[in-house]
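Subject: sequence -> structure tokens, single chain

Hey, anyone have a minute? Need the predicted structure for the following. Not urgent.
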Amino acid sequence: MTRTSAPGVRVKDLTVVYKTPAGELPALGGVSLSLAPGTITGIVGESGSGKSTLALSLLNAVQPPGRIKEGSVEIDGLGNVVELTGEELRRARGRQVGYVFQAAQNSLNPLKTVGKQLLDLGRSHDFDDLPALLKDARALLGRMGLDGGRVLDSYQHELSGGMRQRVGIMFALVLNAHLVVLDEPTTALDMITQAAILKIVRDVHHERGLTTLIITHDMGVAAEVTDSLAVMYGGRVVEHGPTTEVLGSPRHPYTKGLIRAIPRLSGDIDEARALPGRPPTLGTIPKQGCVFRERCPMRIAVCDTVDPEPVTRDARTVACHAVGRPATPIVPKEYV
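Reply:
Had a minute. Here:
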């Protein structure tokens, strides 16, 4: 389907499980999240929180032993991606949903030049005008400050990490996808290259009229480029809202802990305080109650038995029993 405007995305009650010797364990537990058309949404959280699993679900690309057990991913112009199969799903990937993988070098074939891989991509999506595809790729790479001709003639080992990351962005955009997912786009890059990549993301997003999702563990990256921010923990979205509000006045205790742990360049360095404990793994996510309760300074009795429902007020969504209600917290010993 041809689309000329940025799509909206609506994830509803999405559950993704992985088969293990202990049975099927949830990596995502009933996640609901909306991406407004034309916006940049960030997802932050510690490693293992479910960020990349959620991103892969937008392409229905969760690989065995994982599977999407329940829920839907509605994308304007595509419908429910969870229901797409075979050729219809293959065509949607790349052509309508672009994906920039976390390790850019792992998404490139070391035995083929970038240009040959681009031609393979064009043929797989039945592009009739392959010279025009190459021309567009050279122009995109030029916009990113690279010599497009040289890059297309290069193998992956001839490119730096920052160059490979830009090639990944080019592959995600060259087929004119209007929904683009970037998984940790600045990981392992130096600060100058990070700044350049983020500027490219912002510029291309606005110039091409995209809906963009950025997965990151870096609050600075989220603050720099996103319009809205979702915070994930234990396979749940625990807070979501406008980025400036989430970072400026966080409501969920996990969001507060993440922000408090950020090192400062000035002032008292002791103000930065790491979150106590460790995030849960697939095998330790509790089957009932709040997934964050073991590390939470606002824990109350109901947290042990009831999973908090997300509540939306003033464009802010928070899933926490203790937010907005007076109660005597059960303070974990790490906070005493």
